[in-house]
Design goal:
By secondary structure, this protein is an alpha/beta fold. The chain has helices spanning 10-18, 24-42, 50-65, 108-115, 158-165, 182-188, 222-232, 276-291, 307-322, 340-351, 354-367, 373-396, 419-423, 430-435, 464-477, and strands at 45-48, 77-81, 119-124, 171-175, 191-194, 215-219, 262-266, 295-299, 399-403, 438-446, 452-459, 483-484, 490-491. The strands form two sheets. Strands 1-3-2-4-6-5-10-11-9-7-8 form an eleven-stranded mixed beta sheet, with helices on both faces. A two-stranded antiparallel sheet has the order 12-13. Helix 2 (24-42) runs antiparallel to helix 3 and helix 9 crosses helix 12 (373-396).
């Protein structure tokens, strides 16, 4: 089965709908058909909002017929990670503890997508409370990789990455706390962007680790990712960490090329622990940028090697604080018991999965009296060291390059019993979250197993413009990786 929408980009769809050449309803139906045909196998979605999507598309068509412009994402189907609040629609964070909760408001990014004319098709699966690297920690079962359903799609935003890779939606939103957009983007062969901390409002994102979380786009092309980021970025008074300045224009810079840009390949993230086939693609990416006119050299960020250790103290510490609100009293799951204390314990025991419990315990221990300075305090000092090392590297280079993930997608169940080997999947992505900088993953060919490889482009805070220029150049130079059509077959 071939579908006409399999290669349509968000940019193309919006232009056609705004011009009245295609109706939003006509655009939507093949995506809903693709979801219907294949999501039972992949489980990208926790909830498909087909009826609401059809109503929204019909309303858009009426606006176009009346001479209105619905916005830069007119008629573009979008999938939303299920930790983004959507008014009146169940938002579960893939956890039993939020059973039955329907938020009374929209996250800022959701409101901005709607205002721009996008049509939400559903809420995507994730590792519970965004804690994981494989989307196997969901209370509703794992998501599968569209390129090979026996393998993971990455995590924690695996549902959003799989939805875009499978052609269920041209674009999606995820959240990135330690690589949760970029790593699944790499494993699923799509573009994923973690913007500068504060560039995109976190209002309405269910918090995991508030100093690390950031919302960003998934797309099949760098141009679509740029358009989506333009729509969701910008100051929001509802988020105290939101940067009080307008978002940069990104779509218009993509054709500028990389002539004169200085690109540094991070030595500490391209050696030991990186699969040879992945390392080879990063080398090829650097060579492609050099041919396109960039100056390429070796960069050193020595403290990046400590990123994993610092992250797994800071993130769980913040999580243990943020997740204290799930107590069986205010909303979500409640397991009745004789006393309030027993009720809270029973609710949290039944409501949280193993990985969430593991991180709450780890974080509570790191913040406890007598250990706070030795663990949490030391991790914060390491975070400062990493920031200094990145700042020094950015004095020499405009952007940095590394693998996104150490390997291609691994088999489902392969690392589930070994948390440490699972945590190592984020070794290349975590440092950027710790310092609040920007980074993106761009598909760049395949590994020896024929599965996608992502190359990571890193930039300093608010360095999205050079980052996207490099991303566009990598996309243009990428080896001819196969794309997955909505029917699961590959197309060249």
């Amino acid at each position: 089965m071939s579908t006409s929408h399999g290669t349509a980009t968000a940019v193309d769809i919006a232009a056609a709908v705004r011009a009245g050449e295609r109706s939003a309803v006509e655009v939507l139906e093949p995506y809903l058909a693709a979801i219907e045909a294949r999501d039972a196998e992949l489980h990208a979605f926790n909830l498909v909002t087909a009826d609401e999507a059809r109503d929204a598309a019909a309303a858009l068509d009426r606006r176009v017929a009346a001479g209105e412009d619905p916005g830069p994402l007119a008629g573009v189907p979008v999938a939303l990670k299920d930790n983004l609040c959507t008014r009146g629609v169940p938002t579960t964070c893939s956890s039993r503890i939020l059973e039955g909760w329907r938020p009374p408001y929209d996250a800022t990014v959701v409101a901005r997508l709607t205002a721009a004319g996008a049509v939400s098709v559903g809420k995507t699966n994730l590792d519970e409370f965004a804690m994981g690297s494989s989307t196997e920690n969901s209370a509703f079962g794992p998501t599968r990789n569209p390129h090979d359903p026996t393998r993971v799609p990455g995590g924690s935003s695996g549902g959003s990455a799989a939805a875009v890779a499978a052609g269920f939606a041209p674009v999606a939103l995820g959240s990135d706390t330690g690589g949760s957009i970029r790593q699944p983007a790499a494993l699923c062969g799509v573009v994923g962007v973690k913007p500068t901390y504060g560039l995109v409002s976190r209002y309405g994102l269910v918090a995991f680790a508030s100093s690390l979380d950031q919302i960003g786009p998934f797309a099949t092309t760098v141009r679509d990712a740029a358009l989506l980021l333009e729509v969701i970025a910008g100051h929001d008074p509802c988020d105290s960490t939101s940067i009080p300045q307008p978002a940069p224009g990104l779509v218009d810079v993509l054709d500028r090329g990389v002539e004169g840009l200085r690109v540094g390949v991070i030595a500490e993230l391209t050696g030991e622990g990186i699969a040879p086939d992945v390392a080879r693609r990063v080398t090829e990416a650097a060579e492609a940028l050099e041919r396109a006119g960039a100056t390429v050299g070796e960069a050193s960020v020595p403290a990046a090697a400590l990123g994993l250790s610092a992250y797994y103290l800071i993130a769980p510490a913040e999580a243990s604080s943020n997740l204290a609100r799930y107590d069986g009293v205010r909303y979500g799951l409640r397991v009745d018991a004789r006393t309030t204390g027993e009720m809270m314990e029973a609710s949290r025991t039944a409501g949280f999965g193993d990985e969430v419990k593991r991180r709450i315990m780890l974080g509570t221990y790191a913040l406890s009296a007598g250990y706070r300075d030795a663990y949490y305090g030391k991790a914060l000092r390491v975070r400062t060291l990493i920031a200094r090392d990145f700042a020094a590297a950015y004095e020499r280079f405009d952007v940095l390059l590394s693998p996104t993930s150490p390997t291609t997608a691994f088999p489902i169940g392969d690392k589930a019993a070994d948390p440490l080997s699972m945590y190592l999947n984020d070794v290349c992505t975590i440092p950027t979250n710790l310092v609040g900088d920007a980074a993106m993953s761009v598909p760049f060919g395949t590994g020896d197993d024929g599965l996608p490889v992502g190359v990571q482009v890193l930039a300093p805070a608010l360095g999205e413009v050079p980052m996207f220029r490099v991303g566009a150049a990598l996309e243009a130079a990428a080896p001819g990786a196969a794309a997955v059509r909505p029917d699961g077959e590959e197309q060249p």
